[in-house]
């Protein structure tokens, strides 16, 4: 029972980390596009 609870907590943390990673990747992508736009202009 306790082991299952720990697994649920791990899954929640993994989901939080993956969503945070996705947000970071999107932010990096926007910064990269903006940087390219500034270089082109």
N to C succession of SSEs: H
| Amount of beta strand | under 5%
Number of helices: 1
- Which term fits the overall shape? rod-shaped
Would you count the extended β strands for me? 0
Keywords: Membrane, Transmembrane, Transmembrane helix
Transmembrane segments: 20-40
Question: Nutshell version of this structure?
Answer:
The protein is an all-alpha fold and 41 residues long.
How would you characterize the overall build of this protein?
- By secondary structure, the protein is an all-alpha fold.
- The protein has one domain (1-34).
- The chain has 1 helix and no strands.
- The chain has one helix spanning 2-40.
- It is rod-shaped, with a radius of gyration of 18 Å.
- 0% of the residues are buried.
Keywords:
rod-shaped; 41 residues; mainly alpha; 0% strand; 95% helix
List the helices and strands and how they pair.
Blueprint: H1 2-40
